[in-house]
Design brief:
The chain has four helices and no strands. It has 140 residues and is mostly helical. α1 runs antiparallel to α3.
């Protein structure tokens, strides 16, 4: 991952920068980034005229972006490709899907057999009608 650089504030008189984060960010880095963002916002919204003057909108933006960058690099799987419960659930679904595919193949075979039977019945019906027509003719 790309290392996250600390934001540049217009003044560090009211808000101190957090320590440089580790790669990937630790839980302490996540907390520090959130506290940093909150402190910048608190001073920006402060009743203290000097703090309001020195903490700018750009500082709020920088603190917010820093927090977002830290949060974006969190690995929710802790290095695992997928959680164990998810793997088990997917294995069960794969087994179920394989069974459905086998059942569908059986159904297709059954349908093909029914179609052949219908064709045979139609042929037999045609022959029967032909024989019946001959038998009912006056020349017979």
């Amino acid at each position: 991952m790309t290392p996250i650089t600390l934001p540049q504030l217009s003044s560090q008189r009211y808000v101190k920068l957090p320590p440089a984060p580790s790669d990937p960010p630790s839980s302490a880095d996540i907390v520090s980034a959130k506290v940093f963002q909150s402190e910048v916002m608190a001073h920006y919204c402060s009743d203290d005229h000097l703090a309001r003057k020195e903490v700018t909108e750009e500082d709020v933006y920088q603190a917010t972006m820093y927090n977002a960058k830290i949060m974006a690099q969190i690995d929710p799987t802790n290095g695992e490709i997928e959680p164990a419960w998810f793997t088990r659930a997917m294995d069960n679904l794969k087994d179920d899907m394989a069974e459905v595919k086998r059942d569908m193949a059986d159904i297709k075979c059954d349908i093909a057999e029914v179609k052949r039977d219908i064709k045979d019945i139609k042929v037999s019906q045609g022959k029967t009608q032909h024989v019946a027509a001959i038998a009912s003719s006056p020349d017979f």
